[in-house]
């Protein structure tokens, strides 16, 4: 986002004859309401006004992916108001619903409005090492930058995030500075890559060695097997949910995140918000499993993620037994 800001400010200040401070107040960021909080955090770091952050609405009809029509409408409205769309974040595997945005169409829109197009595949990007899931990245060639987190789902210890940029010079231009105490012959002659100019921190750990070791230890087939096993187990868990009439799926399972909840009983005044929150609290209080929650279109939703290194089918079956038992206790109290 800082690289995108650098590019657009130079263009806007020149073409619109306005100061950098004024132009900065008119820059707009777009993503879906399913995006991870890091997008808003990036806005805060880059000095983008919160009022100019657009978490565009999604719903179950598109499995919570961002609608190109919604994006076009928002961008057109902002341009008509004298604002400057400059950054679009597409998603592959959102935190709350594993939604995948239509990357190809979003890329075309980004190009039309001159926006930097970033794709956040932090979680589900790992799945795309399997050919059968590669289609989720169709359109990635239109991106200006792309990231995924091997520490999320590729057997690599935290923290390890990978970032690709189409033009690294733009990133360096936004973040580089050369105080005298960091000047040296290798840097001056471009003999080395100074990653301090590619990121916000000055120093960095040797994270790459962790990923290198994982790749060499497991190999392509081993990592693919790991991903496929998790997705298979998650699909099995989804089948268990669908087989119990007391529960419902909120969104189909794309990867290894299962979003479900107890159905709303007759007479519920809050669409089962209280009932399902009590279920989450009861399960986590026991400490045998950890279930998180989110809201999708205002619906309180339980999130069950299959992601442990050594997780097996019997672990998930045991977890489902616990969930069913606690649900029965709650229903008995209704």
Summary, kept brief:
This protein is α/β, with parallel strands linked by helices. It has 11 helices and 10 strands.
SSE layout and pairing:
Elements: H1 2-16, H2 20-24, E1 27-32, H3 38-46, E2 53-56, H4 68-80, E3 84-91, H5 103-113, E4 116-120, E5 145-148, H6 150-153, E6 162-165, H7 168-175, H8 185-188, H9 208-243, E7 247-251, E8 257-262, H10 273-286, E9 292-296, E10 299-305, H11 313-333
Parallel strand pairs: 1-2, 1-3, 3-4, 4-5
Antiparallel strand pairs: 5-6, 7-8, 8-10, 9-10
Helix pairs in contact: 1-7, 4-5, 9-11, 10-11
InterPro entries: Aromatic_deC, PyrdxlP-dep_de-COase, PyrdxlP-dep_Trfase, PyrdxlP-dep_Trfase_major, PyrdxlP-dep_Trfase_small
Keywords: Decarboxylase, Lyase, Pyridoxal phosphate
Pfam families: Pyridoxal_deC
Please describe what this structure looks like.
β1, α3 and β2 form a beta-alpha-beta unit. α1 packs across α7, α9 crosses α11 and α10 crosses α11. The chain is an alpha/beta fold and 334 residues long. The model has no long low-confidence stretch (mean pLDDT 93). Belongs to the group II decarboxylase family.
What can be said about the biggest beta sheet? Answer: 6 strands, mixed
Number of helical segments with 4 or more residues: 11
What do the pLDDT scores average to? 93
Helix content: 40-55%
Class based on secondary structure composition and strand pairing: alpha/beta
Contiguous low-pLDDT stretches (5 residues minimum) are none
Strand coverage percent: 15-25%
Kindly report how far apart the N and C termini lie.
49 Å
Based on CA atoms alone, the radius of gyration comes out at 23 Å
Anisotropy-based shape: globular
Strand order of the largest sheet: 2-1-3-4-5-6
């Amino acid at each position: 986002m800082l690289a995108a800001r650098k590019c657009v400010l130079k263009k806007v200040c020149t073409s619109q004859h306005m100061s950098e401070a004024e132009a900065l107040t008119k820059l707009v960021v777009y993503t879906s309401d399913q995006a991870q909080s890091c997008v808003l955090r990036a806005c805060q770091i880059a000095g983008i006004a919160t009022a100019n952050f657009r978490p565009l609405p999604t719903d179950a009809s598109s499995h919570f992916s961002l609608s190109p029509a919604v994006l076009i409408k928002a961008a057109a409205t902002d341009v008509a108001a004298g604002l400057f769309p400059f950054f679009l974040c597409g998603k592959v595997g959102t935190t709350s619903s594993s939604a995948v945005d239509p990357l190809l169409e979003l890329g075309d829109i980004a190009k039309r409005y001159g926006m930097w197009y970033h794709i956040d595949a932090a979680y589900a990007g790992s799945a795309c090492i399997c050919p059968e899931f590669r289609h989720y990245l169709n359109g990635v060639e239109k991106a200006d930058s792309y990231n995924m987190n091997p520490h999320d789902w590729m057997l690599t210890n935290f923290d390890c995030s990978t970032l690709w940029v189409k033009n690294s010079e733009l990133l360096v231009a936004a973040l580089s500075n050369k105080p005298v105490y960091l000047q040296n012959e290798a840097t001056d002659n471009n003999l080395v890559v100074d990653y301090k100019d590619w990121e916000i921190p000055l120093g960095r750990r040797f994270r790459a060695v962790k990923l290198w070791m994982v790749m060499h230890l497991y190999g392509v087939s081993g990592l693919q097997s790991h991903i496929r096993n998790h997705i298979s187990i998650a699909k099995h868990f989804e089948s268990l949910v669908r087989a119990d009439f007391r529960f419902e799926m909120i969104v189909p399972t794309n990867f290894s995140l299962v979003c479900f909840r107890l159905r709303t009983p007759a007479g519920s005044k809050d669409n089962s918000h209280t009932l399902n929150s009590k279920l989450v609290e009861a399960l986590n209080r026991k400490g045998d499993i950890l279930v998180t929650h989110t809201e999708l279109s205002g619906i309180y939703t339980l999130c069950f993620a299959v992601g442990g290194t050594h997780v097996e089918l019997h672990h998930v079956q045991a977890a489902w037994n616990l969930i069913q038992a606690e649900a029965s206790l709650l229903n008995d109290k209704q």
